[in-house]
Structures are given as structure tokens and as C-alpha cells.
């Protein structure tokens, strides 16, 4: 659905929510007059250099290891066109539409800064392609995360010159030339420097980082909820979440998670049922007691990733770059290390938060540790298996998340005849983080499904208002305890509720 207010591209950095709005919600973009002026000024510098006798990289030379060759003026348009055609060499499955829109937006934002030397008409055409909902086909493999996300960005540039394939606003696969023509967009005939400027950025990995940050912020709130529900269902204590105890270790994320869990559990009859002197449990297992410490560390890791993403959204990444005084200088700002590191970093707490959720789920299913719950929460244990295999699914995903937590950015494969002899692999780090975010969603959904059944089995004791409201919402889509039934659709329905934001809104309304 289109948003009525377009995102403005100009001197100010993009906000993360603006990137998400364009990538996911189809919000339009507009170029500020100051941006057009900056682009026009920078282009004048490039045209001056194009006519100079001294060679300038990317303007009058080849690229990468071929930068030593001077290209005569009558071959430079072919140079830029050949660059895009040869670099659009991706392979593998199509990348998701939201990722392609994010990377196109972020490249457009850099072009609009006036530090790349492209023509105003080129920037305008790219904005119009984005606003028309034309999404170039980008493939899974083709970026080493250095010298730009080359093959992915080249696929976008290829569509802009009217070649290759795209999906239109309805998702139909079409030739780029036809889609552009229908939208009234003239294909771009690239001039000096423009092909290089279109592809020399870390926009794909940054776009995926911004999307992952958005999703993880919501999932960590869900993790606090599912942990609280498990504590409640397992007759655990909430005394360990007290603010004065948390203040002894003043990590902000930990304080936030502990406070949320305390609020979620407030008013629970189940919690009150075992507060008296008859309760002999001194302390809970780590997966219950230490939830705020693990979730909080994940929150603080996320805060660091947000800092890096915001810096990148205030960056103009191109090589060579056009400076305010008209100089055109080679640089290394296209190296993806700053983004690659945090993409890898985030995959670690994703795996660990999921691992802790799996331990809590297993505890609710084990009759020896569940404090009175039936084995596997089954209706007739032995005849029924309950959530036994739902936990297997959860464990399988957690195992995959541990593999995805292995960093991509420690790898480097030299390329371009050793000119590009150290690369970041940031695109790969971003791709695996997207899978990890999906996996965490599944793991938390299974814990939610299991904890809800366990809370139902604690009747007639009533859960806290917040957890009761979540169970009630879930019961609109998934039936309560009973004989075994097909569980895969119930897991999928719970995932859909988590992704929709309805679970999170229900919690906030009942705190």
C-alpha cells in the first residue's frame, strides 16, 4: 500500500523507518531541489575531467585491474554500458522484492548526495523506476561485499538502461524495456562515470541490515513474552526480575527485558499460587532465571547495530568520490567491513535467544521438570504425543541457527586479478542473517504455542492479564488442549500472528 507522504532524498540522512517504508510498504521517494542542485554541480566536475588529458579512474579509464587502460572519448559510453552488462553476472534464486527495493533506494540516496557525478536525469529516472514499483531481478550470488554489491547493483542498473528482466508492480515477470515503456520512463544511456556510480556501494547489505534490525527489535519483545509465559507455566518465580537486582548489573537491555517480564507477569493467579512458605523452590533453571540477561545482551547488540546502520545511512559511498571542492578522489569507502561485522554479530544473539527458548520449551514437555504438567502436554500420554515433535522442529531450527552464527566476514577470496585482494563477504553475512531472523520467528512461535497450552492446563488458576490476552488471541486461530491433531498449520498460524504484530499489540494493551 502506498504511503501518502513520500520519502525525501537530499542532504539529510535517511531514517531506518523510511527505508522500511519504501522497501516494504511501497512508499514513494522524491528528490529535494537541493539534491538536484548538488547532483548538477558534481556532474559539471565530471564532465570537466572527461575532457581533460589526465586520466581519471572510472571516467576515462577501465575498472578494477583494468584501470591502467585509458579509454578514448568515443568509447566511454560503451565502457559504462559494458560495465553494467558484464557485472550483472549474478546466479541463484531471486532475491526478495523488499531487499531489492531497499538496495535501489539506498543507491539512489547516495546518487542524490552529489558525491557520485551522475546526471540529474539519471537520478530522476531511477527514482521514477522505484516509484513505479518496477523491481529488477537480482540473484542470490554475485557480491563479495567489497567494491560494492556489484552483481546485485548491476542488475538494478541493467534494468535502468532497459535490459534484463524485472517484476512489475503486480509481480509479473517482464522485460525491463517493456516495463519502463509502460511506466513512461526513457531507458538511461549511461555517460562517463555513471555505470560505476550505480554499482559501487554497500547498499544491499545495508538494506538487509536495516530490515533485520526492524524485525529483531520486535522479536526480542516477543522473546520477553514467551519467556514470561514459560516462567508462569513452569511455576517459576518473578522475584529475580526485580529492578533493584537488575540494577546491580546496569546493562540497559537487561533492565528493559526484566522490567517487561515483570510487567507481563503482574496479576497472575498462577504466580501467586506458589509464593507462600510452602514453596520449596529456591531458584529456577538458568533458561528461566537468566532470560533478562540473555535477551538484554541481545538488545544491547542490536543497539550497536542500529548505531552502525545510522552512520551508514548518513554515508555517501562511491569510488571515486566527488568532493565539495570539485576533486574526484579514489578511496576505500566501498569496503563492507563495518556492515559485515554487525550482520555477523547479530546472528550470534539470534542463535542464543533461540537456544534459550528451546530449553524452556523442552522443560515444559518433560514430566520430570514441568511441575505437574502432563508428559509432552499430551491429552492422553502414550496414545497422544502432544508437542513432542513440535519441539523436534524447534530444535532443528536452533541447530541451523547455530550454523548461521558462524561469521562470514572472516572469509575473504581475492578477486579481480588480485586488485581486490581483501573483501568483506558482507552480502553473505546479510543473507544468512535474514534466514536466522526467520528461524528465530519459528522458534519463538513454537515456545508461544507450547506455553499457551501449558497455561491452559494450569486451570482453574488464571494467568496474568497480559498472558491471558495473548492466549485468548491465539485461541481464535489455534484450538486449546485436546487429542492430537495436525500441528504444522498451528505452528504456521502462530508464526503469522507473531509477524503481523497482533501479539505484540495485545501485550502492550494489557500491561
From TrEMBL:
<dbReference type="GO" id="GO:0004397">
    <property type="term" value="F:histidine ammonia-lyase activity"/>
</dbReference>
<keyword id="KW-0456">Lyase</keyword>
<comment type="pathway">
    <text>Amino-acid degradation; L-histidine degradation into L-glutamate; N-formimidoyl-L-glutamate from L-histidine: step 1/3.</text>
</comment>
<comment type="similarity">
    <text>Belongs to the PAL/histidase family.</text>
</comment>
<dbReference type="InterPro" id="IPR005921">
    <property type="entry name" value="HutH"/>
</dbReference>
<dbReference type="InterPro" id="IPR001106">
    <property type="entry name" value="Aromatic_Lyase"/>
</dbReference>
<dbReference type="Pfam" id="PF00221">
    <property type="entry name" value="Lyase_aromatic"/>
</dbReference>
<keyword id="KW-0369">Histidine metabolism</keyword>
<protein>
    <recommendedName>
        <fullName>Histidine ammonia-lyase</fullName>
        <ecNumber>4.3.1.3</ecNumber>
    </recommendedName>
</protein>
<dbReference type="InterPro" id="IPR008948">
    <property type="entry name" value="L-Aspartase-like"/>
</dbReference>
<dbReference type="InterPro" id="IPR024083">
    <property type="entry name" value="Fumarase/histidase_N"/>
</dbReference>
<dbReference type="InterPro" id="IPR022313">
    <property type="entry name" value="Phe/His_NH3-lyase_AS"/>
</dbReference>
Amino acid at each position: 500500500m502506498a504511503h501518502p507522504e513520500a520519502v525525501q532524498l537530499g542532504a539529510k540522512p535517511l531514517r531506518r523507518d523510511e527505508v522500511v517504508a519504501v522497501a516494504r510498504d511501497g512508499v514513494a521517494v522524491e528528490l529535494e531541489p537541493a539534491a538536484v542542485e548538488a547532483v548538477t554541480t558534481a556532474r559539471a566536475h565530471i564532465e570537466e575531467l572527461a575532457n581533460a588529458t589526465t586520466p581519471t579512474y572510472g571516467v576515462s579509464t577501465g575498472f578494477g585491474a583494468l584501470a591502467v587502460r585509458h579509454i578514448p572519448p568515443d568509447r566511454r559510453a560503451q565502457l559504462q554500458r559494458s560495465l553494467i552488462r558484464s557485472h550483472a553476472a549474478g546466479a541463484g534464486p531471486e532475491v526478495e522484492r523488499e531487499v531489492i527495493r531497499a538496495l535501489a533506494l539506498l543507491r539512489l540516496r547516495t546518487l542524490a548526495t552529489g558525491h557520485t557525478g551522475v546526471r540529474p536525469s539519471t537520478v530522476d529516472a531511477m527514482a521514477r523506476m522505484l516509484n513505479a514499483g518496477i523491481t529488477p531481478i537480482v540473484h542470490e550470488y554475485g557480491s563479495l561485499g567489497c567494491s560494492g554489491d556489484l552483481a546485485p547493483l548491476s542488475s538494478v542498473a541493467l534494468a535502468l538502461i532497459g535490459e534484463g528482466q524485472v517484476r512489475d508492480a503486480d509481480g509479473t515477470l517482464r522485460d525491463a524495456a517493456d516495463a519502463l515503456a509502460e511506466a513512461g520512463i526513457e531507458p538511461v544511456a549511461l555517460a562517463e562515470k555513471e555505470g560505476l556510480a550505480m554499482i559501487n556501494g554497500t547498499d544491499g547489505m545495508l538494506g538487509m541490515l536495516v530490515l533485520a534490525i526492524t524485525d529483531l527489535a520486535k522479536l526480542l519483545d516477543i522473546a520477553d513474552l514467551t519467556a514470561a509465559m514459560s516462567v508462569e507455566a513452569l511455576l517459576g518465580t518473578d522475584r529475580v526480575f526485580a529492578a533493584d537486582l537488575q540494577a546491580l548489573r546496569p546493562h540497559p537491555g537487561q533492565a528493559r527485558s526484566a522490567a517487561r517480564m515483570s510487567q507481563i507477569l503482574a496479576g497472575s493467579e498462577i504466580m501467586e499460587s506458589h509464593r507462600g512458605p510452602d514453596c520449596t523452590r529456591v531458584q529456577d533453571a538458568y533458561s528461566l532465571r537468566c532470560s533478562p540477561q540473555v535477551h538484554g545482551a541481545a538488545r544491547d547488540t542490536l543497539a550497536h547495530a542500529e548505531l552502525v546502520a545510522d552512520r551508514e545511512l548518513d554515508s555517501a559511498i562511491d569510488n571515486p568520490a566527488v568532493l565539495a571542492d570539485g576533486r574526484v578522489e579514489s578511496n576505500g569507502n566501498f569496503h563492507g567491513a563495518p556492515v559485515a561485522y554487525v550482520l555477523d554479530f547479530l546472528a550470534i544473539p539470534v542463535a542464543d535467544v533461540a537456544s534459550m527458548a528451546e530449553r524452556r520449551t523442552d522443560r515444559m514437555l518433560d514430566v520430570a521438570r514441568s511441575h505437574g504438567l502432563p508428559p509432552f502436554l499430551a491429552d492422553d500420554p502414550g496414545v497422544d504425543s502432544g508437542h513432542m515433535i513440535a519441539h523436534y522442529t524447534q530444535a532443528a531450527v536452533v541447530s541451523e541457527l547455530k550454523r548461521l552464527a558462524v561469521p562470514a566476514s572472516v572469509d575473504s577470496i581475492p578477486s579481480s586479478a588480485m586488485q581486490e585482494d581483501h573483501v568483506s563477504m558482507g552480502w553473505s553475512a546479510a543473507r544468512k542473517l535474514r534466514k536466522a531472523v526467520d528461524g528465530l520467528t519459528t522458534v519463538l512461535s513454537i515456545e508461544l504455542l507450547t506455553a499457551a497450552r501449558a497455561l491452559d492446563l494450569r486451570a482453574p488458576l488464571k494467568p496474568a492479564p497480559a498472558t491471558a490476552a495473548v492466549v485468548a488471541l491465539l485461541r481464535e486461530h489455534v484450538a486449546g488442549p485436546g487429542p492430537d491433531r495436525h500441528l504444522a498449520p498451528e505452528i504456521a498460524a502462530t508464526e503469522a500472528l507473531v509477524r503481523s504484530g497482533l501479539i505484540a499489540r495485545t501485550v502492550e494493551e494489557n500491561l
